[in-house]
Structure formats: structure tokens, C-alpha cells
Protein 1
Amino acid sequence: MPTSWLHKSFSVSDARLTMKTSNSKVAIVTGASRGIGAAIARRLGTDGFTVVVNYAGSAAAAESLVHEIENAGGRALAVQADVSDPVAVARLFDTAEKEFGGVDVLVNNAGIMLLSPIAEASDALIDRQIAINLKGVFNGMREAAKRLRNGGRIISFSSSVVGLYQPTYAVYAATKAGVEAVTHVLSKELRGRNITVNAIAPGPTATDLFLKGKPQDVVDHIAKLAPLERLGQPEDIANVVLSSPAPTAHGSTAK
Ligand code: NAP
């Protein structure tokens, strides 16, 4: 991270006083109440970013994470928004701008995984994953493209299933392949603004999304497939988000 992206930690009361004038970078993390998103929000908070902790339904978990970040000397705010709803996503950015003066980083992390053979896939299973995993990323990118301060970052989530193409993963993999496609396109559309646009494709990671409904022997088998012979942990992925290409110090200070 360039030096200009760092800022000193301060107490909660100091944070309230300096809310409008702090020059800390502001990051929105979608789906940050649990799993990988929560680890990313926690890590960004520790690294001096002001964090908007977005959630869909888990208000208590999101508020608890905000308190944890604040108790560690950081600054955060929980904001409810269903990423599949473009109005809600615009409101998410409105809130971040009103509370913190602007947005520098968008982490398009929110996602769901519903597995089914294509022959048995219901319309609801197809539509819901497209609405959240793909349209949700479009909704975030559209606001970010218009509103992110120059020198920012946009990071979205693909998956290792793009490339593996296992049975039952068709809809989920299609949405993630779509995320990779729009990531390439947006990086070119934002030429000249010093905004990096990247996607991360984690392998199996120990969160509800991966673990829910899988018998332990299946989890153990999948864990052993990785060269490290273990599942990824949310913190492993959060570390990758921070090491994604950063804009230059010059760009990060531009408005
Ligand atoms: P998770 O533990 O199930 O957490 C999902 C998060 O997304 C929750 O905070 C949830 O909020 C939020 N969310 C769900 N629907 C939403 C919506 N419509 N609007 C806003 N937020 C919503 O999942 P995870 O494993 O951390 O996954 C995070 C990302 O990594 C996803 O994009 C996933 O596809 C990707 N990924 C995961 C793995 C893995 O093995 N875990 C592997 C590759 C890629 P609520 O709690 O409020 O519902």
C-alpha cells in the first residue's frame, strides 16, 4: 500500500470529531457481515481504511463487526442494502459519501451459491444467483464507475469454479465467469482515472457458503485437493484483497 493510503488510528470519540475531515480512504465492502467479507472489513479497518460494512439481513453481525473495528481504533458504519437492488446500492454510496465525504474502494464481495444439475435447476435458483452475484456486481460497478475518487480500487469476487466446471456448479460458475468478464471491461473503461479493477478467485474457503449442507467427509476430501491440504480461511483471502495492485501514490492523492 502506498504511504499516502495509510492513516493513523484514533479513538472512537476522535473519530466522531474528525469524521468529515479525516483523510483516511473509504472502502465499501458488500456482504461484510459474515465470512470473507467480514475478514476483509476487519483487515481494512486495521489498516486504517474507514469501512462501510454492508449486509443484507444480518444486522446484528454487521453492528458487532463495526463495534469490533471501532474498539480496535478504526472507523466503520453498518449499512443495509440488497446488492441486487440498484436503488439500494445507490443509497449505499449516498450514505458513504454523506458520512465520510467520498468512496475510494469498492469490494464487491456479496454472493450466494446454490447448486443443482442444470436439468433440475429451478427458475428461482437461476434468477437469484444472477441477481445477486452478477447484477449485484454490475450495480456496484456502475455506482463506483461514476462516483469512486480517482486513484481508487474496485475488487470483485470470482471463484476457482471458473476453470474447474464441476457438475452442479453451472449457474454459480456462469455468474462468476461473468464477473471476470465485466472486470476486464471496466478496467479499460476507467483508463485515465488511476483506478485499478481486479477480481479474486478463491478456492474452497471455510465459510457458511462453502460448508453449509456438505457432509464432513466431502469437506475433508475437497480440503485435501488443495496443495496446502486445507481449506482457505477468510483471513487468507482478506490478505489478497490488500495486496491487489494499488494505484500509484500520485494517483491516490488526485481528486
Ligand atoms: P458467506 O459466508 O455466505 O457470506 C455471504 C455474505 O454476503 C454475507 O455477509 C451476506 O449478508 C452477504 N449477502 C448475501 N446476499 C446479499 C445481498 N443480496 N446483498 C448484500 N449482501 C448479501 O459467503 P463467503 O464464502 O464469505 O463468500 C463471499 C464471496 O466469496 C462470494 O462472492 C462468494 O461467491 C465468493 N467465494 C467464496 C468461496 C468459498 O469457498 N467460501 C470460494 C470462492 C468464491 P447477510 O449475512 O446479511 O445475509
Protein 2
Amino acid sequence: MATHPTYVDHHHIESDSSVFFKVATLLLGIAVGIVGFFALMMWADARDSRTDASAAPAARPAAVDHSQAGAMPLNSFAGVVPPNAQALAEAHKAYDAALPAAQAGPVAHVHLTLKDMTVQIAPGVKYNTWSFDGHGAPGPILHVRQGQLVKMTLTNGGTIPHSIDFHAARIAPNVAFRDVAPGESFSFQFRANDPGVFMYHCGTKPVLMHIANGMYGAIVVSPAKPLPPVDKNYVLVASEWYMTTDGIKQPASFDMAKAHAMEPDWTTFNGYANQYVTHPLTAKPGERVRLWVVAAGPTLDTDFHVVGTIFDRAWPNANITGTPQHGVQTVQVPAGGGGVFDVKINEPGLYPFVSHAFAHVDLGQVGLLKIGHPKGTMSH
Ligand code: CU
Ligand code: CU
């Protein structure tokens, strides 16, 4: 049961006490950032140390009244989590990043239902999303094969019009991506002729708000001519969150002023800050791992990098019919775009995957690839 996300008016008069609390909040935010930075260096370097204590951002008090948001600067809730954040992070069920199998046969049926729902986007931080298929954000990972006919039905279980825009489709958007009224369903179909990993999202205006409220996901179109085989396939959807409140006592909603200023409170992989730090993606030493990455935005790019290794193969822009690049360190995945990255790691350890635009790491866009059973770490 979610309340309806609303715009926030940022034109209240600012009091002296709110300025004081903002400065205090800013200083605490910097402290959290420094802690996060050193934590990341520990994951990268200290194979013997127990790293999970740094899994969630350090707690800081949430006593500041953010209801009187001033014109500028905007109140940031970056890193604001309740004191039991570590326990909540461990109890959180991580979004399953494994690429599901593609449907067999010439036709792929996809039926997504839009639901309003409250989800957690960081430990103890609640947000009112508009969600595809009750997944929260992102929506379900879709997987079809090149040449399949995708028969898509969208059912709107929400309270305002929504739509769905597939970047994998070549189709007239005014016809296929049209608004669907609450309670109604709409179907269209397209031939998945272009392999890669693509974004899908709601295209209803204001698109910025609909994407920021969680209406996005990834669709993988496997190529007819197979890629080099790998042992593991993981899908990561990067995105950012803009919040009216800290989301701890009451769920936060969308803050248009922050979204326009491009000042997210949190950035995430698969919708929840640091979830793969606490619950790492896994592979055995020497296994090949393919990472299918989409940057959903709504606005910011992701500079994708895996600490401690180099991409054996990289297909920037997910152009997997082309020749991959070899020996690449960091590849930009643009908002609304994708990328495909192969790594093969022989030495057991914890290898962080990040957006190397490092503000995003402090805001939650970091996870771990756990190779083998490195010494000194907790198992989950
Ligand atoms: Cu929508
Ligand atoms: Cu789009």
C-alpha cells in the first residue's frame, strides 16, 4: 500500500536553526564519505581483514527536521540510515542479479503489471515507488533471443497513466509506448532483431519522475550467433534516487528539485544501496563472469569498473554483434544505455564493482564480486 509520490515545494523561508542543522548534516555526510572511501580501499587491499563491518554506511542521527526544505542548498539524505542498518542490510534479500533463461520457441510472452508499492532502497530507508510487476526497482530482468517475437502486455494497476518503452524495439513510440489508463491493459509486439542489453522504462510525462520512481528495468536480447561461453551471467541496473525525506520513519517520495539539480540522495545497483557488498555476487577462481550493465539514470551515467581486474572483453554500448575491446579498465555506460563486460579472475578475493565516478560509491553504487572463499570474510 503506497502513498502517491508528490512534488515538494522548496520555496519555504529558511530558518537559522535549519541552516545550522544543514551544516551539521553536511559535515556528518563528509565523515560518512571518508569512512566509505577507506572501507572500499580495505576491500581492495586487505585480503585478511574482515570486511563486512563496512557493508552498510555508518549510521548517523536522523533527528534533523527536513520538512522545511529551503530553496538552496537542497537537503541531502545521503548515507542517512537507522542505527541498526547493518542488521537490516544483512536481513535484506538481495535482488537476484542472475540472468534468467530465455523463453523457448519463436514467441516470447511478457506481461508486466504496474503496482504502487513501498520498497527499501537502503537499509531502513523506505521509498514510494511505481513498480513493474511488484519487483520494486528495477522491474524484472527480461531475457529473449534475437529473432523472437516479443508479445508485450502492460497492465496498469496504479492510480495514474503509465506506459512502457523498450529500447530493444524498433517501433512507432506514439503507437506502442502510449499511456495506459489505470485498470486497463495494452498489448503490442516487436521483433527482437537487435541483440544486446537494453533499458526499458515508463515513458509517461514527466519521464524524469516516472523513471526516478522505479519504473525501469533491463531486457537482454541474446544474439543468434552466440557470444564466447561464460560460467556466470549477472545483470546490474544502475540508478539514482531523489528523496523528499530520509525515508526512515515514513517512506520518502520523489523530489523534483533534487532531480533537476542532479543531486541524488542514493545511487544503487539493482535498486538497493550496497546490497552486493553485504550479499556479494559469486564465482569460482578462473570462471568467466559476464556482467550485463544498464544505466537507468534517470540522469546520471555509470563509469563501470571492477577493482582488481581488467575487462577481458568489453562491448561498450552493448554492441555485441561487434568486435569486443580487450584489456579495458573502465567503460562509461550512459544513462539510457548498456554495456557488456567479461572478467576472468584467478585469484580468490573480494573484487568491488563500482561506478568509478566515486561520489556514486559513497552514495551506494558499489558491490562485491566474491571469487572463491577468501580468508577472513563472513559467509552469508
Ligand atoms: Cu509511469
Ligand atoms: Cu528511453
